[in-house]
Write a structure and sequence with these properties.
With 238 residues, the chain is of the alpha/beta class. The protein contains six helices and eleven strands. The protein has one domain: Metallo-dependent phosphatases (Purple Acid Phosphatase, chain A, domain 2), CATH 3.60.21. The protein binds manganese (II) ion (MN).
Length: 238
Amino acid sequence: MPSPAAAPTRLDGLLLLSDAHLRGPADPGLAALCAMIAAHTAPGVALLGDLLHAGWTWRGPSPADDVLQAILDAVGSRPLLVCPGNHDFGLRWPKLPQLCVAERHLVEVGGRRALLVHGDEADRRRGYRLTRRVVQGRSFAALIDALGPIRGQRALDALAGAPGADPRRVDAGLVEAQRQWGRAQLGPVELVVMGHSHHLGLEAQPGGALLWLGSWVGQRSGAVLGPEGPAVFRYDSA
Ligand SMILES: [Mn+2]
């Protein structure tokens, strides 16, 4: 298990978001996300995966480039923590001093330690494990790279699933698996923050709490990690 990235400091009020599942720079979810982040007083932002529904960075210009740039512009000079999700496939973020990309982040706010993850470690569903193994392999990467941005993106879109699926439909079995996984992490940390299942909730557990961020797609939900503890929110742009 890789060790979490080094803990950044001064993150009281960290803004936590996940599962935007954006379908490109024209997705209205991107404009709403950027407007919310830019207007938010949070000292830093954490994106816990599946920013894109089918994210890939090719060697030349890629459809995801404009999405990442818009996010970076909205965050500005504040720290940005990213946990890549399973839908971010082969997304490559630029190397920037304020940007930290890692499978797990450990942060400390108000003396409480929190572990931030995308949350798919807990996903034991067979089809999911199999797909993930293929997608993370070298031959898959070579294939998508060779297809190029247009055909490659089309292949990834097909693999990522139909756009019509309701992102608010939550798999109760998956949430329970995440609950078990999250509880096992408590002790060294007092809070475990997860996305992936699109479940939104905050649960007290022996030794700490579990926080699910819901999804930006469909629910426009997120959370703020304050010194008094986490608080979930639903964003209303109207
Ligand atoms: Mn996911």
